[in-house]
Structures are given as C-alpha cells and as structure tokens.
Amino acid sequence: MDNILDQYKAVRKLTEDICAPLKKEDYVVQPVVDVSPPKWHLGHTAWFFETFVLKPSLPGYREFDPQYNFVFNSYYETVGARVVRTDRGNLSRPDVDDVYRYRSHVDQGMTRLLETTELDAALSEIITLGLNHEQQHQELLYTDIKYILGHNPLLPAYTRQGVSYQQHDATGAYLTMKEGIYEIGFEGTGFCFDNELGRHKVYLHEFNISKSLVTNREYLEFVEEGGYRDFRYWHAEGWDWVKSKGSAAPLYWHEVDGKWMHYTLSGLQEVQPAAPVCHISYFEAAAFAAWKGMRLPTEAEWEAAADQFNWGERWEWTNSAYLPYPGYKRAAGAVGEYNGKFMVNQMVLRGASVATSAGHSRKSYRNFFHPQHQWQFSGIRLAE
Amino acid sequence: MDNILDQYKAVRKLTEDICAPLKKEDYVVQPVVDVSPPKWHLGHTAWFFETFVLKPSLPGYREFDPQYNFVFNSYYETVGARVVRTDRGNLSRPDVDDVYRYRSHVDQGMTRLLETTELDAALSEIITLGLNHEQQHQELLYTDIKYILGHNPLLPAYTRQGVSYQQHDATGAYLTMKEGIYEIGFEGTGFCFDNELGRHKVYLHEFNISKSLVTNREYLEFVEEGGYRDFRYWHAEGWDWVKSKGSAAPLYWHEVDGKWMHYTLSGLQEVQPAAPVCHISYFEAAAFAAWKGMRLPTEAEWEAAADQFNWGERWEWTNSAYLPYPGYKRAAGAVGEYNGKFMVNQMVLRGASVATSAGHSRKSYRNFFHPQHQWQFSGIRLAE
Amino acid sequence: MDNILDQYKAVRKLTEDICAPLKKEDYVVQPVVDVSPPKWHLGHTAWFFETFVLKPSLPGYREFDPQYNFVFNSYYETVGARVVRTDRGNLSRPDVDDVYRYRSHVDQGMTRLLETTELDAALSEIITLGLNHEQQHQELLYTDIKYILGHNPLLPAYTRQGVSYQQHDATGAYLTMKEGIYEIGFEGTGFCFDNELGRHKVYLHEFNISKSLVTNREYLEFVEEGGYRDFRYWHAEGWDWVKSKGSAAPLYWHEVDGKWMHYTLSGLQEVQPAAPVCHISYFEAAAFAAWKGMRLPTEAEWEAAADQFNWGERWEWTNSAYLPYPGYKRAAGAVGEYNGKFMVNQMVLRGASVATSAGHSRKSYRNFFHPQHQWQFSGIRLAE
Amino acid sequence: MDNILDQYKAVRKLTEDICAPLKKEDYVVQPVVDVSPPKWHLGHTAWFFETFVLKPSLPGYREFDPQYNFVFNSYYETVGARVVRTDRGNLSRPDVDDVYRYRSHVDQGMTRLLETTELDAALSEIITLGLNHEQQHQELLYTDIKYILGHNPLLPAYTRQGVSYQQHDATGAYLTMKEGIYEIGFEGTGFCFDNELGRHKVYLHEFNISKSLVTNREYLEFVEEGGYRDFRYWHAEGWDWVKSKGSAAPLYWHEVDGKWMHYTLSGLQEVQPAAPVCHISYFEAAAFAAWKGMRLPTEAEWEAAADQFNWGERWEWTNSAYLPYPGYKRAAGAVGEYNGKFMVNQMVLRGASVATSAGHSRKSYRNFFHPQHQWQFSGIRLAE
C-alpha cells in the first residue's frame, strides 16, 4: 500500500476487526499484570497518534479528553494526576463506547492531517512508527484476549470460525552453516525499529540449525518422560519457576480424562501432534533443548540462516539476551524510550507468529520477553 | 408486605434497580479483594435461591447452568472444577446479559414455587434467609459500586440525582445509663440471623453514650491537629496500618487546592461539616475516641441504650470483637457457615446506614468487619 | 522475698541461669519475627531498668552506651538512628560478652540505687514493673530458645537434665457453675498489670468447665480422625492458616517412621499420651473444641471458676478477645504503651505454663497472643 | 607453589586467616539472602573436599557427620532431610568450634590423601577445582563480612589495621582498538572454569576503552547532579530498583552532616575522591555510563583490550549477559552444575578486585551477578 492514508485506515480497521467478536465485558479485565485489557490497547494506540502526531502537528486539533493522557499513557509516571492513581485492570471508565469515540476522533484528525499536509521526513517517520506500534498491539490483542478467555472457567471461544494453524511435521532436516563472518541488522530502506539498526559483522563458528520447528509430538515426549521433574535440564531460575508455578506442560494445555487438550481461540481442542509447539517460555525452550542434547540458536545464527528455512508460525526463542547492537543510540525524546530501556533481563525472539500482522515482521526484527513468559505464540527451533 | 411472593419480587427488583445506572463495564471490575464486581452480587444472590430452594424443593426445576455453581458460590472451595480455577475480578463471562437471564430464570422458578406450594416452616425460613441475604448484598452493591467508581481517575458519578444525606449537627448531648443487668439479643417473632439469638443477660457498669454521631467538623479537627501523625492515639496494628497505607483522612477524602472534597455517589463534592463522618475504619474510630479522651461503646452498651437515640445513618463501630453469644449454635449444613466461621479478628458494628435496605436492620443486628475496613458507610458514636 | 534488692538479684540471676546452657551462637539468631534472639532479651530487660529507673533516678549514673538505646528498645521507632536501621536478627554486635557487661553495669547501678535510696511509691512501682517485665521475658527466653533449637536440623537439646512435665490423665470431670453475677479483675494489694485493673461485675449464664486439660491422647484422636482436613471445625481464617501452612499437628510434632515424636527442650522424644497437649494455636484449640461439640471458656468464666481446678501447666486459650475492662485507662508516658495498644486482633490466654517463672502469674492475669501463634506453651480446657 | 599439598595448606589457611578477626557471633548471621554466614562458607568449602574428594577417593575415610551433608550443601534440594528443613541464617548449630573441627578433620584426610596417593588426572582436577572454589569463597567472605558488619548500627570495624586501597586518579586516557577478528576464551595449560573454555573468534568493531576506572570524584558528580532522580539514564528495571530501594548513592555510602562517608572494613571513613568507585550495581554502572554519553564495554571488548590497561582493583561490569560460549558443554555430574545453570538474567563482570585472592583471576575469567547486586567490590570502566 503506497498511500499512507490508506495504510493508516487499513491498520486502524484491522485493530477494530480483531476486537469485533468481543463482548463489552471482555474489554475490561486484566487477569495478570502482563496482559492489558483490550480497551486499553484500543485507547493507547489512539493516544500515540494524538500525543506524538496530532497535538504537535495538526493546527487546531482539539484534544479529546485531557484526562485520557494518564489513563492511556504506558510510558510515564502519571504526572499531573491530582486525585487518584490508576490501575489498568480496574478501570470501568472510560467505557468501550467512549474509547471507540476517542479512536474515531483521532481518526478524523489523522485523516484531516494526511489529506491536507505535506509530510516532512520527521512526521512521516513518527506516523510510520505509530502504525508499527499499533501492529505490535494487534498481536498483543490476540495474546491478551486468548489469556482472558482461556483463564475463564467457561473457556469461551473467541471465534467459532476457527483460526487456521498450518499442519506440518518435523522433517528432522538440519542446515549446516559454515564458520565465518556474517552481517546482521537491518538493511534496506523501509521501516525498522531502532534496535535493529547498526548493521554489523559477527563471527560465527560452524553450526547446524533445524529447518523446522519442534512439534507438539516431540514436546509431549519431553513432558511424558518427566522433563518437568528433572532439574538437570533447567536453569536454576527455570527450576524455581517450575516449582513455584507447578508447571508441567505448556500454557493452555490441560490433561482431561487422560487426553491432552489445549485452549485455542476456537475453544478447547485436542492437541494436534504435528503442529509446532506453542506458548512456551524461554525456560521451557532451553530445558527441552538440553533434554535433546542440543541448544537454542543465537540471534545472529538465526538471522544468518533465516533465508534458508521457513519461519513465521511461532516466535522463536533464541539464546541471546536482548542487548544493544554496536553503535546503538536511543532516539531523542519520549520515542527513545521505545526499546533501549528494556535491554536487560530479557531474551530475544526471532521470526513472527500466526498472530503477527501480515508484513509487520522481517528477518532482522528483534522481539523480546522475559524468560518466564508463555502467553505469546512462542515456539522452539533447535541448533547445535 | 405480608405476601412472601410480593416480598420476593420487591427485594429482587430493588437489587436490579440499584444496578440500573451502571454501564456494562462497571459490572465487571474488582479493584480490591473485599469489593466484588456487581455482576457477581447479581449472580450470587440468584445462586442462593437456586441452590438452597429451587434445586431441593421445586420438582422439575432445571438448573440454569451447572458451571455457574462454582462461578457464583462464595462459600466452598471450587470442587469439581476440573480445568481452571476462577477469580471473581477476572471474569468477563458469564456476561451481564447472561446474568440477568440467570436471575430471570430463577425468578420464574421461585414464582412457580411460591404460587403452587404450601411452604413448610423450613422452606419458609430459608426463603426469608435468602431475602435477607440479598438485602445484605444490596448494601454491598452500594459500597462496592462506590469503591469502583470512586477509585476511577475520572471520578464518574453513579447518579446525577443526588443521594440525600440527612443534615444534622452534633448536639453534644449524652445519655447516662445506670449500672445493672440488661438483656440483649433478638426478641420477638420476625426474622433474625443466628448470631443475634440467645437473648441473655449482661451486667453493665454506668456509662455515658452520645445521642449523636461524630460529624465531619469534629473529625476534621482530629485530622488537622495531627491525629494521623501521633502514634499515641492508635492501636499498634492501627499505627502500622496508617504508616503502610499512608492514611491521613477518611476514605474518599481528597484535599484539592486546600479544600477538603470527598467522592460521593453523585461525584466529587465538598465535605459537609454537619454531616456524620463516614468511611472510617475501626482503627480510625478508636484513635479519634482516644484523642477525645473517650472510647467507643461495647455492643451490649449500644443495644441497651439504642431506644434512646436515633440510629441508622452510619454503621457504628463498637469496641466489641465479633464472638458468639452464650449458647450460640451454628445451624446445620451449608447455611451454618453463614456467621460462625467469621467469629475471629473482626469487630462488631451496630445500627444501619443510609445504604442499608429499609427494614433490613434492627436493634439486635450484629454487623462485623475487620478493623482496617473503610469502604462501608461506617461512623462513630462516642461513650465514656 | 520481702527485700526488693534481694528480689531484684534473684530475678536477674534467673534470667542468666536460663541462658547458661546456650552457646554464643544460640544467642544471635531470629528464625521468625515473633522469636527474638536471647541476646536481645538480655539487653532489652537491662535497657528497661537503665531507661526508666537509672537515668531518671540515680544521680551520677553513666549510660553504658548511648547506641544501645535503639538496639534494645522494643517500643519506639528508632529515633536518632542517623546511619543505618537495625534488625534484631541480623545483629552480631553488641556481642554476648558486651551484653553481659551491660547487664552487670546496670546491676551495679541498681544495687547502688537500692542500697542508698529511700524509694518513693512511683520508683518502687516502676522497679516492680521492671521485675515483672523481666519475668515475662524469662518465659519468652524458654519459648524462643525452644523455637531456635527446635528448628535446627540437628535438633540439639537445650539441656540433657530433662525438663520435668507432670503426668496426668484426663479425668473427664466437669464443674458446673451457676448463673449469676460474678466479679473479675485484680483484687488485693500486690503487683498487677494495668489490664487486670478495674475489678468489675459480669453476668454469667450456667456453664460446665473441665477440671483438666486436654491431653495428647485426646488431641491425637483429632489429628488421626482428619481434624486438620475438615473445614467444618475451623474458623474461615483458621482454615486458610491450615492450608497455607500445611499444618497437620501441633508445633514440634514430627511423624517419624509411623510414630509421633515431638521436640522438647531435652531433644526429640516420643509424645506422651497422658501429658496435656502443648504448642497449640487458638485456631487449633477452637477447632478441637468444635470437633468435640464443645467450646472454649470465656475469660470471665475461666476466672470465676479458677479456684476450683488446677491450672499452671499450659496457657489456656479462652474464647475472649483481648479488650479493655470497663474503666480501663492507659498509664501515662511510655509505660502506658505496655498493654493498651495491643487490644485488637488478639485472644486472651489464662493461667500459666511450666515455663512461667514461679510466682509470676495469678488468677486475674491476662496473657494475649494472635490466634495463629503456637510457640507458647499453650493448651486447651473445654467448656460447654 | 608447585606442591599441591602446600597449595592446599596455603589456601585453607588463608580462609581461616580471613575469619580470624571475627567474633563468634559474626559467624552466624545472614542479613539478606545473597550473603551467607561466614560459618557456612567455612563448612561448605570443607564439605566440597569431603564430598567430591575424600568420600570417593580416600580409602577408610570416616565422614565427619552425615547431617552436615544437607547443612553445607549449596547445590541440591535437601534430600534425605526427614524432620526439618534448614535455612542458612537461622542455624546456631553446628557451632563455630564444630565447624573448625570439621575443617581440621577434612584437612587431616586431605593431608593423608595427598601424602600417600599418586593423583590421577581426574583427582588432580577436582582438587584444583576445590581450591579455586575455596578462593571464590574467600572473596565472598570479605564481601559478606563487610555486609554483616556494615549493616550493623554500631558499624564495627573488621580490622583496625586498615585495608589498603591504591590511590589513583582518572587519567582520562582512552585506548582505541581496531575493528577486526579477535580471539577470546581461556588459553594455556593451567586451571580455568568450564565457562571460559572454547576459545573462539569474535568480530569487534572499532571502539575506545578507558585506561582507568571511574573514580569516586566522577561518580559523586553523577550523584550530586541528580543522576538517581532522572529516569532517562536508567533501564526500566533499574528505575524500578532505584524507586523501590530508595537508592541515592553506592552501597555503604552515608551522607553524614553534609559530608560523604562510606563504611569500609576499617570502619566509617570519608569517601576518597581519587579511589575507584566501588559497590555499584550493573544498573548504576549503566546509568552512569548513559549520563556520560558513553557505554560499558562488552566482555569480548574487555578481554581483547585487557593486556593494555591495569585491572584488578574492581570487578568491572560489562554490557554482556552471562551466556555460554560457542560449543560450551557442562561437565558431567554434580560439578556440571557449577556454571551452566546460572546462564540467564545475570551480567558478566571481568577483572578482579582488591578482595580477590592473589592469583585467582585471569584475563579470561567470567564472573557474574544479577544486575541489582552491589555487595561485590564492583566498579566501572567506560567504553564508546
């Protein structure tokens, strides 16, 4: 889509389409701190455009409601909050209709801006960032909706239509990559996040990397052969996590009358042996690899080899911590808080998942989460 | 109302009338553990009639949904929950429409029962208990709705019509009660809870008790003269509570530009000096009394004197712990869990409040909460 | 002992005799917040005499070390602490020898005072309070030493000599007390704590009270018949306590190869069926009574009947919350913090235990602890 | 020292020499979870030789006390503990004399073994590992003793002799390293840990690295210009750490009457402007670097440049997460738990400190701690 207004409309519409199957009540709850209420995602992505685009750049723009600033701001301490502090999951107001009105108000402003203004480079860049930001929240909407409904005792389906998962079996095939100097990092002219910049050389030693993702069948062997009960496969912190959480299988798996079921966006279903395992923490991915006598690839290995295998079904945990590339510089101002300040205690995931918006990811994309997180559509690719 | 079906309809309707001003989103949230979502109150009071009346006593009654049993059961461990455990505040389903359908289904059953059945004493008793139970939840709906909206940064009003508070000023008048034997506990033939039964004699020493409640004007002096900063007025656990919570005024009070405002069901308003102070914990009530060089009455003193003063605007903290009367026996079965198991670590409140349903309370009524709780419409009557 | 100097010397010596079997290392540790290191008890009881007697009343008294004031003060916030805050269980200094030197310094001051000064009533009273205070800490030394050694995996004995426990079996005999007016509270001319004062009338209804304490044999039936697994016998908060703590027997009981053992001050020994059960929380005492279809006595019932049964082997949980007697007034100043500020959320125990210093307790004595505490030598007497 | 028995004796003696200034009480306490009681370090290092050398390899060796196995085992769940679980900081027994007797017993066994046995490679290796392990605990003894005494309100000195710190001022000089391929990892024939093995190539881009450590003078500027109050310099988790801990200066620094003092092993002293800053967390090191507009070096950069600057006064935080080198393999058995299982959520420190035992560290040594830890003698070297 070469027209930015069309792009804007398409991205914004998709966000709302994702929420269409929800009931108003589903928009409100926040069962754990990492999951945000859908209402909040809708408001926050509008707030981004209002704050970074419309207020500074659209003459005569009227702020929708000054109080929304601290309700939907994910970045800053709630400065200016005179009376009460806020807590995302306990907010029944602004209500869902208000939030859609807010989005509509912002959309009108953006349309007016995009129809009437010659965008300079900076403005164009921040709008593109806003669209990529909204696409990230589209994926979070899927993961958070799944968490909200999948932790409800009625296990309601998000959609009866079914969300298609590609069937595929493990081929067992490995790719051998030769020792030498490789270049990684973003290359080209399109959009990328600041954390991908600074394309640079790395020296890799010879390694093998699997052409396919680990399947449920393979992971089930690990489960059934006692992988969750043997400390030798786990990091010390991973073992603490297993014990304190009582983990014995991936998130959303339930053993019902001796059969392994899992909650999907279409409701509770039997685990499909040939599908790639999903909703795995880094701790589980690393333990599985250790049990196999293998390891996870580093992010440089992954990127160097990525053209030679299919990826995009699961975010793939790497064995790389999320750290700055050589020469990394934070952007100035609030936007500079986007990535750099999270560069500690998180692990990099590469690829994309079935929940990632089309065209959003790329080979150099660096996703990152804490090692205990399972609620993303995350899986495993082995290396050695 | 002498007809039990009319009574039933009136009580059930009032519950839904209380919820009428809410938006769907307001029904869902649970900002702290003691506050339940309105949706839960609606479902739980229907569950009571379904479980203790309809399922055992109405031939052919069809249970609305077997899963509602553990969603709306406040009493038991969630037995039978095979797959996931539940958490009141994180439940977007059953949704609000479902819950009203559930109530309607139960109401149809109850109407059929009451129109066609000659009630025996046991059935009559459990239905009356159910109605009193629902009236308790009517008051909790007011307190919980106030908490939900009063902790939202937008401070939305529950109703624009205004909730009238009787104005009255402290008279300073005290009543002297003579030393001697008094009788307390329920007397008469109507309904009461098991914890009021066992009317018995107590020996009271001479005491004075105020004819009026402590006003905001008086309480404000305590606030402004440093009552919250001087440990000498507080129980040791009360002082810890003040420090850890940073308390410096009653719940819902906010000092805005040097003026004391408080959140009411009609929104943020100026504190009225002549109104009785409200939303006070036992710790605060006891500290205020100590600052005055006085004390709170015991529940026996309160009941002995209650015919000689007006009560009903605020639940009045007493200096009595919630303990069984001589000869107290728990009822058999699940209903026996109603009161007895809470008889530790809670303090008795007497009277009623502006949020109590008409006719629900009586002189012998024993309300009880933990000493730190403020979200009830609770106030102070002094004694010495 | 009619001479106060002799009394002083005897009490002080007993405290040190209790500590004589300890190793230096035992003086230091604090395994849980309610247990204080023996070193702290030794210093704190000296600090009491230094602060409330010697500094105000002995001309020329030289404070041992100004910093000890906040190390050994149990009452106040650590005012004056300029550099670092303290934590009883992490203090290796002052070391044990320093603390004994501190005690000796205070003893010299007290001896000089008592040999040279005509005591006025106020001074006499505070010294007597100090001795009773030290006797309370003598019992705490036993309970805390038992906790420290009894939670060490080596289960070392405190003394090989054996601590004698009177053998006695349940007689099953009950005493019937007639309905009527009784007087309770301290009577006489000796020492008592402020919480016992205000002898007053209470009206009691007829009740039966056991002439003997519940034995291990009886309690073991409760354990073995599933008392800890049936929520019906427990307060709601008691049931939470059982589940979160995993309690299944009294403190210090261990099932070893199918036999019930318990840690005693002489080391691990078999549980003696005929001895009164010990180290019971209020929650356990109340649950046991409910299982028996009986109840615990109130403190007024206990005191009214106490002349007609033997007591003194176990602190006996009553079903009375710790609250002020009619007309209770706190003493002025720091000493006034002794009792009144604890009058919430605790239950009264009556009697005395095998660990109580001879002559320290009396019929009107009101001991008090939170309902979950087990580390005192506490037991059960039933009533109905 | 070419004789392994002499080496053994020298290392073991140094451990005890470090403890010589302690009082018995100092051996026992554990103020925070990361700090172990000195008694535990003494026992644990003896347990290492008993468990991995004497029991498998010395015929006729008599275990000192089978219960010590779970008291002094840092690695495993306390299997076999039948009666009570243990907690390092609450153990008054085994007492200090017992622990020294244990060490002496082990030393006799080791002497007998080393005097009578021809060591094979495996045995030689494990003994060398044991000595390096003990040297690591020598440094931990210093850091833990400093923490124990430095958090005591009396701020007692460990030694009056003074621990000499080299004075040196920042030169401001930087070293430029050329882009290209470097090799890192252990090289040579002596001892190293498994995490240093797998010498491998890395590709480095041109960088500058400081020839000297950041001094107190420089760090003080950061403190006084508000570095701890400006979120922009901090990782998000670092900023949470600052706020929750209330950090405003390095560990052990106290502002006393307007002057910066710090606790040292010789007691409280003025902060010396020219000494390298010490007791800095990774969060602080990274924030300081950001404030300077610079960054921390990676561990590969550090190692590549290390021959060209002086190091050894402070452990130097790098911007590298602790992760396996290419081809890293855990050793088999219990010893394999030494390093690999900690490779998540920790950052690498390079160099050595004034508290490191002579000869213990080397250029390829990889030390690692969590980013919030301050109690090591850690400092900052800048890069860009």
From TrEMBL, chains A, B, C, D:
A Gene Ontology biological process term: ergothioneine biosynthetic process
Domain Sulfatase-modifying factor enzyme-like, first and last residues per copy: 178-306
Functional pathway: Amino-acid biosynthesis; ergothioneine biosynthesis
Domain (DinB-like) ranges: 7-139
Record's keyword terms, sorted: Iron, Oxidoreductase
Pfam family, any one: FGE-sulfatase
Transmembrane region(s): none
Keyword match Amino-acid biosynthesis: no
Claim: Oxidoreductase is one of the keywords in the record: yes
Stated name of the protein: Ergothioneine biosynthesis protein EgtB
